[in-house]
Design goal:
Keywords: Monooxygenase, Oxidoreductase. By secondary structure, the protein is an alpha/beta fold. The protein is built from 13 helices and ten strands. Helix 6 packs across helix 7.
Length: about 325
Amino acid sequence: MRLGIALDLSSQEPVRPQVDRTVTMLARAEQQGFDSAWVGESYHAASQPFHLPSVLMVLGHLAGRTSLALGSAVLLLRAYSPEKLAYEAALLDQLCGGKLTLGLGLGSPEIARRAGLPASGPAGAAFDATLKLLRDAWSADAGTDSPVAIPPPVRRGGPRILVGGKVAASAGRAATLADGFYGATNYCDDLLIKQSAAYWSYRGGRPGGTGGVVATTRFCVVHEDAATARELAARHLKAATDYYTERGSWMGANGPAELELPMVGTPDEIDATIARYVRAGVTSVQLRVAPFGTPPEVARHTLDLVGRHVLPHWHNTTTTDAITSFDGE
């Protein structure tokens, strides 16, 4: 199991001060043994508590300010032309020393309109064609007829690609055309575990086996006292969870009646949740410790408790292949 940090960068306040605070938090996370930093993206018509657009631009800025591995969770394909994405992701991989993981999701037709691209966007077969184009671009030699990204990524074949999605076809795409599956924050545990099982089944291997990745993002508030952790979560996660709820997307298409926050509680409770994920074949969890409005001291306390009491139980317990790919080796 690998543990990283998922960042919330809001369009409701100036960007640079947020990023500066984030870099300070990432330095603390690295000291505690976390291995990666992940950023999502959204394209809004009005200010929202998360995310910013242009995830590759944000990660490019972070590449010069942290030595952690970097990931997109997730980049929305409908905001990009496949060819331009091949160039920009390869360049970002160079900037972060080959430590990029590219998490991809489809996004809505509205996102394509805001990005000035055809509203149909990649879907189904076109999504698959985009994945093939990326691999071809990152594997081809200059001077051939294949699309070539110059400069190329650090490793031939390019960064690891993870694919998200709530349906069985998404798990199949992740297993056959990508390198792993990504479950978003708003996937309930039942959906995450279902998609993990489908992914490993498509791969024909045991859950958590060699060469595959199932990653997810989870809100995380940790305190020595369980009731205090839940009270802090109720207070500081509201803006983010309301964002999902208002769009009918909290915890999947048919989410639970009550809020599900499996990574809120004491260190022992967090440890138990991670153990359940490992049994289900999840290999990487990114913790959202500082959603919009969370006091820095609350995020620091969570990082410190996870770093001291949880992470040592799980660090370096996934397969060798998964570890080296996230470390950029």
